[in-house]
Amino acid sequence: MGLKKGPNAWKINALIPQSADVPKLNKTVLCVVYKGGKFMEDFSFLLTIAIIILSTRFLGEASEKVNMPQVVGALIAGVILGPSVLGLVSETDFLSKTAEIGVILLMFIAGLDTDLQEIKKNAVAFVVIASCGVLVPLIGGFATYYFYFDVDPGNFNEVLKAVFMGVVLTATSVSITVEALREMGKLNGPVGSAILGAAVLDDIIGIIILTIVTSMKDTSVSIGVVFLKIGLYIIAMGTMAFIMDKLKDQLDKGAGQRRISIYVMALVLIVSYASEKFFGIADITGAYLVGVMLSTFKARTDIARKMTVPSYLFFSPIFFASIGIKTELDGMTKSFLIFSILLLIVAVISKIIGCGLGAKLCGYSADDSFHIGIGMVSRGEVALIVAQKGYSLGLLGGDLFSPIVLVVIITTIITPVLLKKLMK
Questions:
Q1: How many helices (H) and strands (E) would you count in the chain?
Q2: Phi/psi of residue 15, each to 5°?
Q3: How far, in Å, CA of 96 to CA of 319, rounded?
Q4: 220-246: string of b/e by CB count within 10 Å (b at 16+)?
Q5: How many other C-beta atoms are found inside a 10 Å radius of the C-beta of residue 25?
Q6: Nearest to 377 by CA among 341, 404, 349, 339
Q7: In CA terms, which of 108, 169, 317, 417 is 20 to 30 Å from 46?
Q8: Residue 228: per-residue pLDDT
């Protein structure tokens, strides 16, 4: 606990230690001010939130004006506000938990945007493209970390960290590519459909791998128990999907009513909690699957519109900024700079080769296969979500956030640029 004298008051900042799995302390969990003979709560967090929202919005719009995704501006805002540049905002327990809700909402909305009919129509091709698009980056990310840091094969935790670096590279951001394809009128073509379908399955496969790897962080849990939990989880989600399908007509009749979105919001949070608490599966998995279950409902549009508002206005800006706040660019040594460049090269090439090869095997032309590979390069918010989960479990140190954020920013920037240039 720290006691700090201000101009007119004493401020107490309480620090609480975390578990060994988490690499850092959460600062300023409790902050009170002693003024006028009594303790008063510090409301500076309100100013912090205002700064985050305004800065992410301003830089997000600036990114959009130069034809870049807004997420890039939000990330840069977090870096500028954080300890690397201005030092105006530091990571707190409040920001961390708010960011977690932002992650859950993002994944739920992504699930709502899933086109199940398109997946069913070209399921085999999409599965092959997605599988290759996951396997090659997984191997590439693992090998980059393993050989660059000379990992001891007998050190289970370090090997698991190398695997997790591969998991981060498996992610694909659909939203970035969709916008570029829409501008070119290619969204509903063979390349656009393949990218969308494979990207959705890519994320599902990636989330499953993420769940397996994060469950293995606890060495006392056998892999058999992990797969048993996954099996039970699939049964539970399947049962839930069956029940929701039976209630589909009732939900659709209530489309537009305020209470439907309230019930859905509560359901998303409950399923997210149950996923972590009872099955050891990432909360974002539960949120995503609830979104997928509702993606064919007539009420989907109204639910998405209402759920997007709190996400867009409050939770998502804090989530993206929190990633930038964790980034410690001032600690970027020459060694980590070289690793960042290597990781970026592997991130780009592995997606092009993996997804392009999968598309070629499914009968796509050489040009279309190459374009599909390019379209899957962008990592975006999905990689950040995966990285956030690894950070919270101690699978990813704070010093490795800088290379990942660098990969996210550059792949997010170059993907729409390359697509526009190559698909003219």
A1: 18, 4
A2: -110, 130
A3: 8
A4: eeeeeebeebbeebeebbeebeeeeee
A5: 13
A6: 349
A7: 108
A8: 84
| Residue of 326, 364, 390 whose CA lies nearest to 141 | 390
Work out the angle at residue 209's Cα, subtended by the Cα atoms of residues 203 and 214, and round it to the nearest 5 degrees: 120
Contacts of 293 (CB under 8 A, 6+ apart): 111, 240, 241, 244
Tens digit of pLDDT for each residue in 371-406? 999 989 988 667 877 887 788 778 887 778 778 888
DSSP helix/strand/coil, 311: helix
End-to-end CA gap in the chain: 60
Number of neighbours of residue 36 by Cβ within 10 angstroms: 9
Question: Mind giving me the DSSP string for 321-360?
Answer: HHHHHH--GGG--HHHHHHHHHHHHHHHHHHHHHHHHHHH
Residues 6 or more apart from 28 whose CB is under 8 A from it? 13, 14, 15, 90, 92, 93
H-only helix segments in 185-222: 190-215
SS3 assignment for 125-190: HHHHHHHHHHHHHHHHHHHHHHHHCCCCCCCHHHHHHHHHHHHHHHCCCHHHHHHHHHHHCCCCCH
pLDDT digits (tens, 9 = 90+) for 36-92: 555 455 678 888 899 999 999 999 888 878 777 677 788 788 888 888 788 888 888
Query: Measured between alpha carbons, how far is 229 from 243 in angstroms, rounded to an integer?
Result: 21
